[in-house]
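ok trying this again, last paste got cut off
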Amino acid sequence: MRAKYILTDIEGTTSSVQFVYSVLFPYFREHCHEIKEMTSNLDIQQAIKKTVELSATLENKKITSVDAVIDTLIRWSLEDRKVTPLKTIQGILWQKGYESGEIKGHVYADVALALENWKNDGLKLGVFSSGSIAAQKLLFQHSEAGDLTPHFSNYFDTTTGGKRETSTYTKIAEVINESPADILFLSDIIEELEAADEAGFQTIQLLREETIPAWKTCVHTFNEITL
């Protein structure tokens, strides 16, 4: 296997899923009320507007106050909904936590050195996660292993498309101007690997923690990947 570009998932791949559920999500829910004081922020304004629209179209519920928006966002967080306005506001609030030092981004012990080695070998690296691009950058910038953002050339989130949709990976290949066959996608989720595989990507399943092996190529750590 020889790739020119490595695209990696975050949760269950570079970082523990438990970090998201035990640190990031609780922090968001604890601080979500703070968006009432941040409505001059254009990204917050747009996310609030989109939350109202999605509530109406997806749930047939009419939202008439910021308090109701907050309640909806907290519920969506508990349900782990993959919707853009939730991810946007999570990223904004997590930035506050990262910059204050209240949050440090978890990465597995093998990740930092592998990223460095791959980049030194001439490979380009990118991230594709359901978390917002802002949240991705914060996790890697304020990681327990230091600032890892210099390793990455691109970041992709749900604004590009669903992680289980083949067309999303085709679009990513076009954006980074690489042939799908030259891109290696790393994830723990079979449906994501299937979509990337159908788009022509090379694929490997990461078996972190309790992940069940269910793909044609599996590894436990980045150290086991041979390129």
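PB: full thing came through this time. The mean pLDDT is 95.
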